[in-house]
Structures are given as structure tokens and as C-alpha cells.
Specification:
Strand order of the largest sheet: 1-2
Shape: globular
Structural class: mainly alpha
Radius of gyration: 16 Å
Strand content: under 5%
Number of helices: 6
Low-confidence stretches: none
Helix content: over 70%
Number of strands: 2
Largest sheet: 2 strands, antiparallel
Distance between the termini: 28 Å
Order of helices and strands: HHHEHHEH
């Protein structure tokens, strides 16, 4: 049941942030998403892991999404700034990594499979966001190829970082 709740939490944050950006209520969407994420972390069995992986995800997410913008692959819909990753992407990145030890834990240690699935689901998530009005691809095919390559790398990397943090936490608990 916990894994199902975790999956629903991620989907809720993703949809809220995308829909909020597309319909000019991104701040409200961010605030509600923060509430969902706070509840997820407070009820987590891996709280210290979740704090650290969340912080790492924010850094990675801001860098990667800003890179997509600077390379003119995507323009995100936002009321605040356009030269770097929009604020509403931050809760999505945090909610994503909170699935690594829960609803997506079956991919732990399966780096090749995680990469392949990431290379499909990552670009698909961006495409769905664009279709909902949260952004625009400058060139659809180039953007999808670049996103596919990025997510082929980033998905197993996130699982690897998560496993290191989990091992570190287990070691410090003993």
C-alpha cells in the first residue's frame, strides 16, 4: 500500500505542477506539492535518505533543465524567469527521487533496465508536459533525442546515488 501511495504522490505532484504552469497558478501548485512532499518525507522510513536525495535532485534538476533551456531545446511556461529551470520543476524532481526507494525500488541495482526505461519515460514526461501547455519544444525530434540520452544516463545515476546514500545511512545507523 505504501508503494501505491508513493506512486500516487508522484503523479499528483507532476500533474499539479504541469497543470499549474500551463494555467498560470504555478505558485499554488508549488505550495500544494510542497505539502504532498512534506507528508511523504514525514511518513517515510528513509527520512534522512529522502532529505539528501531530494537536495541532490534539486541540484541535478536545475542544472539539467537549465541546460535544456540554454541549448534552446525547450522553453518552459513560467511567470518568473525563463533563462533557467522554472521553480515548478523543483517539486517534480523531488517527488521523482522519493519514488526510488519506494514505488520504483524494483529497479534498484538494475541500472541497464533503469536507463532504458528512463530513456523512454523521461522524454515522454516532458512531451506530456509540453502537450498540456507547460512548455514548448524548439525542435521536437532533437529535443526528444537529447532527452532520451539524458534520461538514459540520469535514471541509473539517480538509482546509484540513492543506493550510496542508503548504504551510508545503514552504516551510520549501526
Amino acid at each position: 500500500m505504501k508503494k501505491l501511495i508513493n506512486f500516487i504522490q508522484f503523479q499528483a505532484v507532476w500533474f499539479l505542477c504541469i497543470f499549474g504552469a500551463a494555467h498560470q497558478f504555478e505558485l499554488l501548485a508549488i505550495l500544494i506539492s510542497i505539502g504532498i512532499i512534506a507528508w511523504a518525507i514525514l511518513t517515510s522510513e528513509h527520512r534522512s535518505h529522502d532529505y539528501m536525495i531530494g537536495l541532490i535532485a534539486v541540484i541535478i534538476g536545475v542544472v539539467l533543465d537549465s541546460l535544456l533551456i540554454t541549448q534552446n531545446l525547450i522553453t518552459f511556461t513560467t511567470a518568473y524567469w525563463t533563462s533557467m529551470a522554472p521553480l515548478w520543476m523543483t517539486p517534480i524532481w523531488i517527488a521523482l527521487v522519493l519514488t526510488l526507494q519506494s514505488s520504483m525500488s524494483w529497479l534498484s541495482g538494475r541500472y541497464l533496465l533503469a536507463g532504458v526505461l528512463g530513456s523512454i519515460s523521461g522524454p515522454f514526461a516532458y512531451w506530456a508536459g509540453v502537450r498540456m501547455g507547460a512548455g514548448v519544444f524548439t525542435d521536437f525530434y532533437v529535443a526528444m533525442i537529447c532527452l532520451s540520452v539524458l534520461w538514459l544516463i540520469i535514471t541509473p545515476a539517480l538509482f546509484y546515488i540513492s543506493s550510496l546514500l542508503k548504504a551510508r545511512h545503514a552504516y551510520s545507523s549501526n
